[in-house]
Amino acid sequence: MKVCLISGSNGITLKNTVKHACVKIKIIDTNHICFGSYNALYMSLGKFFLAGVVLCELPYADSVILDLEATWEESDNRTPLICFLSQGSDPSGQIEILSKTKEIGKFLLQFGMISIKFTNEPPQGIRASLKRTYVDVSQDLLDYSNAHQWPRLLYATAFLHTVVLERRKYGALGWNVPYEFNQADFQASVQFIQNHLDDMDPKKGVSWVTICYMLGEIQYGGRVTEDFDKRLLLTFLHVWFNERLLTSDFRYQINTAKSILDTILSMQPKEGGQRGGETREAVVSNLANDMLGKLPPDYIQHEIKEALQKMGAILPMNIFLRQELDRMQKVLKVVRQSLQDLLLAIEGTIIMSASLKDMLDAMYDARVPEHWRKVLYEPMPIIYLYAVNTTSGKDPNLYECPIYRKPLRTDATYIGSIDLETTEYLPSHWTLRGVALLCDIK
Protein backbone atom coordinates (compact mmCIF):
# COMPACT_ATOMS: atom_id res chain seq x y z
CA MET A 1 0.00 0.00 0.00
CA LYS A 2 1.55 3.30 -1.06
CA VAL A 3 0.94 6.43 0.96
CA CYS A 4 1.16 9.95 -0.39
CA LEU A 5 1.89 12.34 2.50
CA ILE A 6 1.51 16.08 1.79
CA SER A 7 1.77 18.68 4.52
CA GLY A 8 2.02 22.47 4.81
CA SER A 9 4.53 24.18 7.12
CA ASN A 10 3.78 27.22 9.30
CA GLY A 11 0.49 28.08 7.72
CA ILE A 12 1.54 27.39 4.12
CA THR A 13 -1.40 25.51 2.57
CA LEU A 14 -1.43 23.75 -0.78
CA LYS A 15 -3.87 25.08 -3.34
CA ASN A 16 -7.26 23.39 -3.56
CA THR A 17 -6.58 22.60 -7.21
CA VAL A 18 -3.67 20.38 -6.17
CA LYS A 19 -5.79 18.53 -3.64
CA HIS A 20 -8.57 18.02 -6.17
CA ALA A 21 -6.10 16.83 -8.80
CA CYS A 22 -4.65 14.26 -6.40
CA VAL A 23 -8.12 13.04 -5.47
CA LYS A 24 -9.07 12.68 -9.15
CA ILE A 25 -5.88 10.72 -9.81
CA LYS A 26 -6.74 8.35 -6.94
CA ILE A 27 -10.27 7.78 -8.27
CA ILE A 28 -9.39 7.39 -11.96
CA ASP A 29 -6.06 5.57 -11.89
CA THR A 30 -4.82 4.31 -8.52
CA ASN A 31 -1.83 2.62 -10.12
CA HIS A 32 -0.24 5.99 -10.97
CA ILE A 33 -1.17 8.07 -7.93
CA CYS A 34 2.41 8.84 -6.90
CA PHE A 35 3.55 9.80 -10.40
CA GLY A 36 0.37 11.77 -11.12
CA SER A 37 0.44 13.57 -7.77
CA TYR A 38 4.04 14.61 -8.42
CA ASN A 39 3.07 16.10 -11.79
CA ALA A 40 0.09 17.92 -10.25
CA LEU A 41 2.30 19.45 -7.56
CA TYR A 42 4.95 20.42 -10.12
CA MET A 43 2.42 22.16 -12.38
CA SER A 44 0.84 24.07 -9.48
CA LEU A 45 3.74 24.89 -7.16
CA GLY A 46 6.59 25.07 -9.60
CA LYS A 47 10.10 23.68 -9.55
CA PHE A 48 11.20 25.74 -6.54
CA PHE A 49 8.77 24.08 -4.16
CA LEU A 50 9.71 20.60 -5.38
CA ALA A 51 13.42 21.02 -4.85
CA GLY A 52 13.33 18.87 -1.74
CA VAL A 53 10.76 16.31 -2.86
CA VAL A 54 11.57 12.69 -2.03
CA LEU A 55 10.56 10.36 -4.84
CA CYS A 56 10.03 6.65 -4.34
CA GLU A 57 8.97 4.02 -6.90
CA LEU A 58 8.29 6.48 -9.72
CA PRO A 59 8.43 4.78 -13.15
CA TYR A 60 12.04 4.26 -14.31
CA ALA A 61 13.42 6.26 -11.35
CA ASP A 62 15.75 5.03 -8.64
CA SER A 63 14.45 5.21 -5.07
CA VAL A 64 16.07 7.81 -2.84
CA ILE A 65 16.67 7.16 0.85
CA LEU A 66 15.09 9.91 2.93
CA ASP A 67 17.60 11.94 4.95
CA LEU A 68 15.56 14.09 7.33
CA GLU A 69 18.64 15.90 8.60
CA ALA A 70 19.54 17.08 5.09
CA THR A 71 15.90 17.89 4.38
CA TRP A 72 15.77 20.02 7.53
CA GLU A 73 18.86 21.98 6.51
CA GLU A 74 17.48 22.68 3.02
CA SER A 75 13.97 23.70 4.13
CA ASP A 76 12.54 26.90 5.56
CA ASN A 77 9.18 28.14 6.81
CA ARG A 78 8.04 29.03 3.27
CA THR A 79 8.56 25.62 1.67
CA PRO A 80 6.13 22.76 2.35
CA LEU A 81 7.60 19.33 3.02
CA ILE A 82 6.27 16.87 0.44
CA CYS A 83 6.96 13.13 0.76
CA PHE A 84 5.89 10.12 -1.28
CA LEU A 85 6.30 7.10 0.97
CA SER A 86 6.84 3.75 -0.70
CA GLN A 87 5.47 0.44 0.53
CA GLY A 88 6.69 -0.51 4.00
CA SER A 89 8.45 2.82 4.64
CA ASP A 90 8.09 4.30 8.12
CA PRO A 91 9.95 7.56 8.85
CA SER A 92 8.53 7.87 12.37
CA GLY A 93 11.81 6.75 13.98
CA GLN A 94 13.86 9.35 12.10
CA ILE A 95 11.27 12.03 12.88
CA GLU A 96 11.46 11.21 16.58
CA ILE A 97 15.26 11.45 16.56
CA LEU A 98 15.16 14.74 14.64
CA SER A 99 12.59 16.19 17.03
CA LYS A 100 14.85 15.45 20.01
CA THR A 101 17.90 16.87 18.25
CA LYS A 102 16.21 20.11 17.17
CA GLU A 103 14.05 20.36 20.32
CA ILE A 104 10.90 20.90 18.27
CA GLY A 105 9.00 17.82 19.35
CA LYS A 106 5.62 19.53 19.61
CA PHE A 107 5.68 20.58 15.98
CA LEU A 108 6.75 17.20 14.62
CA LEU A 109 4.30 15.27 16.78
CA GLN A 110 1.51 17.21 15.08
CA PHE A 111 3.07 16.74 11.66
CA GLY A 112 1.09 13.58 10.80
CA MET A 113 -2.19 15.00 12.07
CA ILE A 114 -2.08 18.17 9.96
CA SER A 115 -0.92 16.36 6.83
CA ILE A 116 -3.12 15.42 3.89
CA LYS A 117 -2.93 11.69 3.31
CA PHE A 118 -3.79 9.72 0.18
CA THR A 119 -3.94 5.94 0.35
CA ASN A 120 -3.46 3.77 -2.70
CA GLU A 121 -5.64 0.79 -1.82
CA PRO A 122 -4.79 -2.65 -3.24
CA PRO A 123 -6.56 -3.50 -6.52
CA GLN A 124 -9.56 -5.83 -6.53
CA GLY A 125 -9.40 -9.07 -8.49
CA ILE A 126 -6.73 -11.21 -10.11
CA ARG A 127 -6.50 -9.18 -13.33
CA ALA A 128 -6.20 -5.80 -11.61
CA SER A 129 -3.73 -7.13 -9.05
CA LEU A 130 -1.59 -8.75 -11.75
CA LYS A 131 -1.62 -5.50 -13.70
CA ARG A 132 -0.54 -3.65 -10.57
CA THR A 133 2.36 -6.09 -10.12
CA TYR A 134 3.54 -5.49 -13.69
CA VAL A 135 3.40 -1.71 -13.21
CA ASP A 136 6.55 -1.99 -11.09
CA VAL A 137 8.28 -4.12 -13.75
CA SER A 138 10.54 -1.91 -15.86
CA GLN A 139 11.36 -2.46 -19.51
CA ASP A 140 14.93 -3.27 -18.54
CA LEU A 141 13.65 -6.10 -16.36
CA LEU A 142 11.46 -7.43 -19.18
CA ASP A 143 14.49 -7.44 -21.50
CA TYR A 144 16.85 -8.85 -18.88
CA SER A 145 17.49 -12.19 -20.57
CA ASN A 146 17.29 -13.56 -24.09
CA ALA A 147 16.40 -17.01 -22.76
CA HIS A 148 12.99 -18.07 -24.01
CA GLN A 149 12.09 -19.27 -20.49
CA TRP A 150 12.48 -15.79 -18.96
CA PRO A 151 9.11 -14.22 -19.93
CA ARG A 152 7.26 -17.35 -18.84
CA LEU A 153 9.08 -17.53 -15.52
CA LEU A 154 8.52 -13.84 -14.84
CA TYR A 155 4.81 -14.15 -15.57
CA ALA A 156 4.47 -17.30 -13.44
CA THR A 157 6.18 -15.57 -10.52
CA ALA A 158 3.97 -12.48 -10.89
CA PHE A 159 0.88 -14.68 -11.07
CA LEU A 160 1.98 -16.59 -7.96
CA HIS A 161 2.57 -13.33 -6.10
CA THR A 162 -0.85 -12.03 -7.14
CA VAL A 163 -2.69 -15.15 -6.03
CA VAL A 164 -1.02 -15.50 -2.63
CA LEU A 165 -2.03 -11.89 -1.93
CA GLU A 166 -5.58 -12.31 -3.24
CA ARG A 167 -6.23 -15.43 -1.18
CA ARG A 168 -5.88 -13.43 2.04
CA LYS A 169 -9.27 -11.76 1.54
CA TYR A 170 -11.04 -15.15 1.59
CA GLY A 171 -10.21 -15.77 5.24
CA ALA A 172 -9.79 -19.42 6.17
CA LEU A 173 -10.73 -20.46 2.62
CA GLY A 174 -7.62 -18.71 1.36
CA TRP A 175 -5.01 -19.30 4.06
CA ASN A 176 -5.47 -20.96 7.41
CA VAL A 177 -3.17 -18.30 8.84
CA PRO A 178 -3.00 -14.79 7.31
CA TYR A 179 0.53 -14.09 6.06
CA GLU A 180 2.08 -10.70 5.30
CA PHE A 181 3.36 -11.37 1.79
CA ASN A 182 4.70 -8.19 0.20
CA GLN A 183 6.56 -6.78 -2.78
CA ALA A 184 9.91 -7.74 -1.30
CA ASP A 185 9.00 -11.44 -1.66
CA PHE A 186 8.27 -10.93 -5.35
CA GLN A 187 11.48 -9.00 -5.96
CA ALA A 188 13.57 -11.60 -4.14
CA SER A 189 11.96 -14.39 -6.16
CA VAL A 190 12.59 -12.58 -9.44
CA GLN A 191 16.21 -11.98 -8.43
CA PHE A 192 16.66 -15.70 -7.72
CA ILE A 193 15.18 -16.66 -11.09
CA GLN A 194 17.53 -14.20 -12.81
CA ASN A 195 20.52 -15.77 -11.03
CA HIS A 196 19.25 -19.24 -11.89
CA LEU A 197 19.01 -18.39 -15.59
CA ASP A 198 22.49 -16.82 -15.55
CA ASP A 199 23.97 -20.02 -14.12
CA MET A 200 21.77 -22.39 -16.11
CA ASP A 201 23.30 -25.02 -18.35
CA PRO A 202 21.55 -24.59 -21.73
CA LYS A 203 21.73 -28.32 -22.31
CA LYS A 204 19.98 -29.19 -19.04
CA GLY A 205 17.51 -26.30 -19.06
CA VAL A 206 15.57 -24.89 -16.11
CA SER A 207 15.62 -26.91 -12.90
CA TRP A 208 11.95 -26.77 -11.96
CA VAL A 209 12.61 -28.70 -8.77
CA THR A 210 15.10 -26.06 -7.65
CA ILE A 211 12.77 -23.17 -8.45
CA CYS A 212 9.81 -24.80 -6.70
CA TYR A 213 11.92 -25.51 -3.65
CA MET A 214 13.40 -22.01 -3.41
CA LEU A 215 10.08 -20.20 -3.88
CA GLY A 216 7.99 -22.67 -1.92
CA GLU A 217 10.33 -23.30 0.99
CA ILE A 218 12.35 -20.08 1.25
CA GLN A 219 11.13 -17.00 -0.62
CA TYR A 220 7.39 -17.34 0.04
CA GLY A 221 7.45 -20.52 2.10
CA GLY A 222 9.67 -18.91 4.72
CA ARG A 223 6.62 -17.00 5.96
CA VAL A 224 4.28 -20.00 5.99
CA THR A 225 3.96 -21.70 9.38
CA GLU A 226 0.97 -24.02 8.92
CA ASP A 227 1.40 -27.46 7.35
CA PHE A 228 -1.66 -27.38 5.09
CA ASP A 229 -0.84 -23.86 3.96
CA LYS A 230 2.64 -25.11 3.04
CA ARG A 231 1.09 -27.99 1.10
CA LEU A 232 -1.14 -25.53 -0.77
CA LEU A 233 1.77 -23.24 -1.63
CA LEU A 234 3.89 -26.12 -2.92
CA THR A 235 0.95 -27.38 -4.97
CA PHE A 236 0.63 -23.93 -6.55
CA LEU A 237 4.28 -24.02 -7.55
CA HIS A 238 4.30 -27.56 -8.94
CA VAL A 239 1.16 -26.88 -11.01
CA TRP A 240 1.63 -23.30 -12.16
CA PHE A 241 5.23 -23.58 -13.20
CA ASN A 242 4.14 -26.24 -15.67
CA GLU A 243 0.69 -25.11 -16.73
CA ARG A 244 -1.67 -22.23 -16.13
CA LEU A 245 -4.53 -22.48 -13.71
CA LEU A 246 -7.25 -19.93 -12.95
CA THR A 247 -8.50 -19.80 -9.38
CA SER A 248 -12.21 -19.71 -8.70
CA ASP A 249 -13.53 -16.41 -7.39
CA PHE A 250 -16.96 -17.65 -6.37
CA ARG A 251 -16.68 -17.09 -2.59
CA TYR A 252 -15.49 -13.52 -2.99
CA GLN A 253 -18.28 -12.74 -5.46
CA ILE A 254 -20.89 -14.23 -3.10
CA ASN A 255 -19.64 -12.14 -0.18
CA THR A 256 -19.53 -9.00 -2.32
CA ALA A 257 -23.08 -9.55 -3.61
CA LYS A 258 -24.34 -10.22 -0.09
CA SER A 259 -22.71 -7.05 1.19
CA ILE A 260 -24.31 -4.99 -1.60
CA LEU A 261 -27.76 -6.48 -0.98
CA ASP A 262 -27.48 -5.92 2.76
CA THR A 263 -26.52 -2.30 2.12
CA ILE A 264 -29.51 -1.80 -0.20
CA LEU A 265 -31.86 -3.31 2.37
CA SER A 266 -30.43 -1.14 5.15
CA MET A 267 -31.15 1.98 3.06
CA GLN A 268 -34.85 1.18 2.70
CA PRO A 269 -37.28 3.42 4.66
CA LYS A 270 -37.77 2.10 8.18
CA GLU A 271 -40.62 4.31 9.32
CA GLY A 272 -44.08 4.77 7.85
CA GLY A 273 -43.56 2.22 5.07
CA GLN A 274 -46.54 0.24 3.82
CA ARG A 275 -47.02 -2.97 1.89
CA GLY A 276 -50.45 -3.54 0.35
CA GLY A 277 -52.05 -1.06 2.75
CA GLU A 278 -50.47 -2.64 5.85
CA THR A 279 -47.82 -0.99 7.99
CA ARG A 280 -44.49 -2.63 8.70
CA GLU A 281 -45.55 -3.37 12.25
CA ALA A 282 -48.76 -5.05 11.08
CA VAL A 283 -46.90 -7.25 8.58
CA VAL A 284 -44.33 -8.34 11.16
CA SER A 285 -47.03 -8.88 13.80
CA ASN A 286 -48.93 -11.24 11.51
CA LEU A 287 -45.71 -13.08 10.69
CA ALA A 288 -44.77 -13.40 14.37
CA ASN A 289 -48.21 -14.79 15.30
CA ASP A 290 -48.01 -17.30 12.47
CA MET A 291 -44.57 -18.47 13.58
CA LEU A 292 -45.66 -18.80 17.21
CA GLY A 293 -48.58 -20.97 16.13
CA LYS A 294 -46.22 -23.32 14.25
CA LEU A 295 -43.59 -23.66 16.97
CA PRO A 296 -43.70 -27.04 18.76
CA PRO A 297 -44.07 -27.03 22.57
CA ASP A 298 -41.02 -27.17 24.80
CA TYR A 299 -39.63 -30.59 25.65
CA ILE A 300 -40.41 -31.93 29.09
CA GLN A 301 -37.09 -32.81 30.66
CA HIS A 302 -38.19 -35.66 32.93
CA GLU A 303 -40.02 -37.37 30.05
CA ILE A 304 -36.89 -37.13 27.90
CA LYS A 305 -34.78 -38.56 30.71
CA GLU A 306 -37.13 -41.50 31.25
CA ALA A 307 -37.28 -42.28 27.51
CA LEU A 308 -33.50 -42.23 27.19
CA GLN A 309 -33.08 -44.48 30.21
CA LYS A 310 -35.32 -47.06 28.57
CA MET A 311 -33.36 -46.92 25.31
CA GLY A 312 -29.97 -46.95 27.02
CA ALA A 313 -28.68 -43.57 28.18
CA ILE A 314 -25.00 -44.37 27.67
CA LEU A 315 -25.28 -45.66 24.12
CA PRO A 316 -23.41 -43.36 21.66
CA MET A 317 -26.44 -42.60 19.48
CA ASN A 318 -28.60 -41.83 22.52
CA ILE A 319 -25.96 -39.47 23.87
CA PHE A 320 -25.97 -37.74 20.51
CA LEU A 321 -29.79 -37.60 20.61
CA ARG A 322 -29.70 -35.98 24.05
CA GLN A 323 -27.32 -33.31 22.79
CA GLU A 324 -29.59 -32.67 19.82
CA LEU A 325 -32.61 -32.25 22.09
CA ASP A 326 -30.74 -29.82 24.33
CA ARG A 327 -29.76 -27.69 21.34
CA MET A 328 -33.28 -27.73 19.92
CA GLN A 329 -34.73 -26.80 23.30
CA LYS A 330 -32.47 -23.74 23.40
CA VAL A 331 -33.55 -22.72 19.90
CA LEU A 332 -37.26 -23.04 20.76
CA LYS A 333 -36.84 -21.03 23.95
CA VAL A 334 -34.98 -18.15 22.30
CA VAL A 335 -37.27 -17.92 19.24
CA ARG A 336 -40.49 -18.14 21.26
CA GLN A 337 -39.40 -15.58 23.87
CA SER A 338 -38.13 -13.09 21.27
CA LEU A 339 -41.34 -13.35 19.20
CA GLN A 340 -43.49 -12.76 22.28
CA ASP A 341 -41.37 -9.74 23.27
CA LEU A 342 -41.60 -8.34 19.75
CA LEU A 343 -45.40 -8.56 19.78
CA LEU A 344 -45.54 -6.78 23.13
CA ALA A 345 -43.21 -4.07 21.81
CA ILE A 346 -45.35 -3.56 18.70
CA GLU A 347 -48.44 -3.21 20.93
CA GLY A 348 -46.62 -0.68 23.09
CA THR A 349 -46.69 -2.78 26.25
CA ILE A 350 -42.88 -2.83 26.54
CA ILE A 351 -40.14 -0.62 25.11
CA MET A 352 -38.94 -1.39 21.59
CA SER A 353 -35.25 -2.05 22.33
CA ALA A 354 -32.50 -1.91 19.74
CA SER A 355 -32.36 -5.71 19.44
CA LEU A 356 -36.13 -5.91 18.96
CA LYS A 357 -35.97 -3.11 16.37
CA ASP A 358 -33.28 -5.05 14.46
CA MET A 359 -35.43 -8.16 14.70
CA LEU A 360 -38.45 -6.27 13.29
CA ASP A 361 -36.38 -4.97 10.37
CA ALA A 362 -34.94 -8.42 9.66
CA MET A 363 -38.32 -10.15 9.65
CA TYR A 364 -39.81 -7.45 7.42
CA ASP A 365 -36.88 -7.88 4.98
CA ALA A 366 -37.28 -11.70 5.07
CA ARG A 367 -33.93 -12.16 6.85
CA VAL A 368 -33.04 -14.28 9.87
CA PRO A 369 -32.61 -12.05 12.97
CA GLU A 370 -29.02 -11.83 14.06
CA HIS A 371 -29.49 -13.17 17.60
CA TRP A 372 -31.33 -16.19 16.17
CA ARG A 373 -28.27 -17.08 14.13
CA LYS A 374 -26.25 -17.54 17.32
CA VAL A 375 -28.49 -20.35 18.59
CA LEU A 376 -29.81 -21.95 15.40
CA TYR A 377 -28.51 -25.47 15.03
CA GLU A 378 -27.56 -26.92 11.69
CA PRO A 379 -27.19 -30.71 11.40
CA MET A 380 -23.76 -32.13 10.63
CA PRO A 381 -22.96 -35.20 8.55
CA ILE A 382 -21.63 -38.28 10.28
CA ILE A 383 -18.51 -40.00 8.96
CA TYR A 384 -17.99 -43.66 9.76
CA LEU A 385 -14.31 -44.54 10.09
CA TYR A 386 -12.89 -48.03 9.90
CA ALA A 387 -9.43 -49.55 9.71
CA VAL A 388 -8.02 -51.26 6.62
CA ASN A 389 -5.14 -53.73 6.72
CA THR A 390 -2.66 -52.89 3.98
CA THR A 391 1.07 -53.11 3.41
CA SER A 392 1.18 -51.35 0.05
CA GLY A 393 1.51 -47.85 1.51
CA LYS A 394 -0.65 -44.84 0.84
CA ASP A 395 -2.49 -44.65 -2.47
CA PRO A 396 -1.28 -41.52 -4.36
CA ASN A 397 -4.84 -41.00 -5.62
CA LEU A 398 -6.15 -40.36 -2.10
CA TYR A 399 -6.67 -36.78 -0.94
CA GLU A 400 -5.52 -36.10 2.61
CA CYS A 401 -8.43 -34.01 3.85
CA PRO A 402 -7.95 -32.07 7.12
CA ILE A 403 -10.72 -31.96 9.74
CA TYR A 404 -11.34 -28.85 11.85
CA ARG A 405 -13.73 -28.18 14.69
CA LYS A 406 -14.48 -24.62 13.47
CA PRO A 407 -14.16 -22.65 10.20
CA LEU A 408 -11.07 -20.96 11.68
CA ARG A 409 -8.42 -23.34 10.40
CA THR A 410 -5.65 -23.24 12.97
CA ASP A 411 -3.74 -25.79 15.01
CA ALA A 412 -6.13 -25.14 17.91
CA THR A 413 -9.14 -26.30 15.85
CA TYR A 414 -7.37 -29.07 13.93
CA ILE A 415 -8.58 -32.61 14.76
CA GLY A 416 -6.85 -34.84 12.24
CA SER A 417 -6.86 -35.89 8.59
CA ILE A 418 -8.57 -38.63 6.64
CA ASP A 419 -7.84 -39.98 3.17
CA LEU A 420 -10.71 -39.53 0.72
CA GLU A 421 -10.98 -41.28 -2.61
CA THR A 422 -10.83 -39.02 -5.64
CA THR A 423 -11.59 -40.62 -8.97
CA GLU A 424 -12.31 -37.84 -11.46
CA TYR A 425 -9.55 -35.44 -10.34
CA LEU A 426 -6.06 -35.61 -8.91
CA PRO A 427 -5.57 -34.81 -5.19
CA SER A 428 -3.96 -31.49 -6.19
CA HIS A 429 -7.33 -30.43 -7.61
CA TRP A 430 -8.83 -30.43 -4.10
CA THR A 431 -5.69 -29.01 -2.50
CA LEU A 432 -5.86 -25.89 -4.69
CA ARG A 433 -9.49 -25.41 -3.64
CA GLY A 434 -8.79 -25.71 0.07
CA VAL A 435 -11.24 -28.56 0.63
CA ALA A 436 -11.60 -29.48 4.32
CA LEU A 437 -14.13 -31.07 6.66
CA LEU A 438 -15.69 -28.90 9.37
CA CYS A 439 -17.42 -30.18 12.50
CA ASP A 440 -19.15 -26.82 13.00
CA ILE A 441 -19.73 -23.98 10.52
CA LYS A 442 -20.23 -21.25 13.15
TrEMBL record:
GO MF annotation terms: dynein intermediate chain binding; dynein light intermediate chain binding
A Pfam family it matches: AAA_lid_11
Superkingdom, natural source: Eukaryota
GO cellular component: dynein complex
Any GO BP: microtubule-based movement
InterPro entries (alphabetical): AAA_lid_11, AAA_lid_11_sf, DHC, Dynein_C, Dynein_C_barrel
Domain Dynein heavy chain C-terminal: 255-377
Domain Dynein heavy chain AAA lid residues, every copy: 150-254
The protein's name: Dynein heavy chain 5, axonemal
Organism, scientific name: Portunus trituberculatus (Swimming crab)
Gene field: DNAH5_2
